[in-house]
Design a protein that fits this description.
The protein is α/β, with parallel strands linked by helices and 396 residues long. The protein is 34% helix and 16% strand. The longest helix is centred in the N-terminal third of the chain and has 19 residues. It is globular and about 65 Å long. The chain starts with a strand and ends with a helix. Pfam families: Glycos_transf_1.
Length: 396
């Protein structure tokens, strides 16, 4: 294997984009195989050194795809090109807007799926790959049930040079800070967060919810699915001109502006500066096809983290390293094409008691945070991507 083609766009403000960036940079650092970015890049923001390396890959890959002989000869049939495809729900290609024809010696699939409903055509597509790498054990098991021939799991990683315990700056003074991150959509459970924080604030008015909930896909199905929520009347108002009307949604939910500090997006390598200001992180997600990278990063920063014990979260829950939400009710959503088998609805009262536990015993909470950081130290990008490459190269 001389080259690995990534058939999705890399970028820095969405999960697949981060995955691609980290994989491309990892292969550069370890000296190969060469990376060709078949779909180029969306916007990516990183430090100057990594930007220069990624920019070179983007430009050289564009030449390869365009047929420049200096580059394209590396990717002729029989010359060692493996292409990795990013597949989402129903085996749909993720972040691959362009049809690119290359003669790959082998094709593999990487996938994160949450929707358990799957068409026959999608089942055949999953079954067509000699290797399908899932982002969690739950996702792997689901793929096996859908007919994938050889599903295996390999979870994502964290960058310990960025996401690690460190002193706070003290930006929120005397507030009890609850961090919540992840793009706004029903399966991420922001409605559950708001219901729990509203109840917790009735006991502790100094509580402050700090969120990074940006979603560039404002007309997405995931936002519309808040109509299934037992906690809110429906999704937030969205308009093409103004985007998500957060203020109206907050007022409807009885959340005052003093209760919450909201960010749409936060530069990824600066995100730990915000995370480390938190007393606790909260992720009552209904479903994760992967392990929830933002939750992994919060744990890596040493923040005591509350996690719903369902789907991909189960791969990062460990005794004493987080606070699991064990009460998980089935999620029913009467919507054609949406399968929620295995999803979990967290209990608001259990969340409030978990927050209370952190509030009451800060020393014990710090111990949980330290254990979480130690646990995440096992899952660095370098370790996880070496495992991924071993799977792709047939060495594991």
């Amino acid at each position: 294997m001389k080259a690995l083609g990534l058939n999705w766009q890399i970028g820095s403000n969405y999960g697949w984009g981060t995955y691609g960036m980290e994989l491309a940079l990892h292969l550069f650092r370890r000296g190969g195989p060469r990376t060709v970015l078949l779909q180029g890049a969306a916007d990516f923001r990183t430090d100057e050194l990594q930007f220069a390396r990624l920019d070179y890959m983007v430009r050289s890959s564009a030449k390869a795809v365009a047929g420049d002989r200096q580059w394209f000869d590396l990717y002729r049939p029989g010359n060692g090109l493996v292409v990795a495809h990013a597949l989402g729900n129903n085996a749909e290609p993720a972040f691959a807007p362009n049809r690119v024809a290359v003669a790959a010696d082998r094709e593999v699939a990487l996938t994160f799926i949450e929707n358990t409903a799957c068409s026959e055509a999608a089942r055949r597509r999953f079954a067509s790959f000699p290797l399908v790498v899932a982002g969690s054990d739950w996702c792997r098991d689901m793929l096996a049930g859908l007919g994938a021939a050889n599903p295996v799991s390999c979870i994502q990683g964290i960058d310990p040079s960025v996401f690690h315990p460190a002193p706070r700056r003290g930006d929120f003074r005397d507030r009890f800070v609850i961090f919540s991150g992840g793009k706004l959509e029903y399966r991420k459970g922001q409605d559950i967060v708001l219901a729990a924080v509203r109840a917790f604030r009735s006991r502790h008015p100094e509580a402050l919810l700090v969120t990074v909930w940006g979603n560039v896909w404002k007309q997405s199905r995931g936002i519309a699915q808040f109509r299934h929520s037992p906690h809110v009347a429906g999704p937030p108002p969205v308009s093409p001109e103004k985007g998500i009307d957060w203020l109206s949604w907050m007022r409807e939910l009885g959340v005052a502006l003093n209760d919450i500090t909201m960010f749409g997006f936060f530069t990824h390598d600066r995100l730990p500066l915000l995370m480390r200001e938190a007393d606790v992180a909260l992720f009552p997600n209904r479903a994760e096809g992967g392990t929830n990278l933002v939750a992994m990063e919060a744990m890596a920063c040493g923040v005591p983290t509350i996690l719903s014990a369902n789907t991909g979260h189960l791969d990062i829950i460990a005794d004493g390293a987080c606070i699991p939400l064990r009460s998980q009710r089935p999620v029913a959503a009467d919507e054609p094409g949406l399968g929620t088998e295995g999803w979990g609805e967290s209990d608001v009262d259990e969340i409030v008691e978990a927050l209370e536990r952190v509030w009451q015993d800060r020393e014990a909470a710090r111990a949980i945070g330290a254990a979480g950081a130690a646990h995440m130290a096992r899952f660095t990008w370098a370790a996880q991507l070496d495992k991924l490459m071993g799977l792709i190269e047939g060495q594991a």
